[in-house]
Amino acid sequence: MKPAPALLAAPRLAFAFSDYALKERLCGRLCASHGRWLGGYRTLELRPGGKRAGFEVEALGGGRAVLASREIVSPVSFNKYALNLAALEGTALPALEAAAAAGRVLLFDELGPMAMLSPAFSARAVELLFSGSPCLVFFRRGAQVFEEAFERGGDTVIIELGEAGWAEAVAAADAWLDGKALLLGNP
Question: Does 171 fall in a domain?
Fold first, then answer.
């Protein structure tokens, strides 16, 4: 099946998700197969002993910081986790800035309620999303600032990520990333 021209022309491809494991499966797959032209950050669960204890932010190409944990002390919290907003501002943002400067596809994994708690990160993330750099985004439903930004932009292809549409989501992401790599001169 040939990808739709609107998909290939879109400057942003966004996956809306509610299932973290499914998001992680697709993001991991895309980083493994298209990582040479991606830059930005990933959000990973901290699971010592198999039980989720928080989240880390990992810059593609190096650098990692705890984003949320029950073990840290912070004046900012989300649900049962204390948040380290410096992880977003000092690890994720520099990774996005470096990727934009290098002419890579910007990976935002993930935009959600925790990211919205950092005004500095949220403001710059929205600027980068609409900077002209191609962007691959995973966002959690309910992250209203980012959902509204995509809707206002009008040229973002949003795919609902779910088990039923898994094959289509993978095919769309592969086609979009292959097309962006050719445009950026990274075949």
Answer: yes
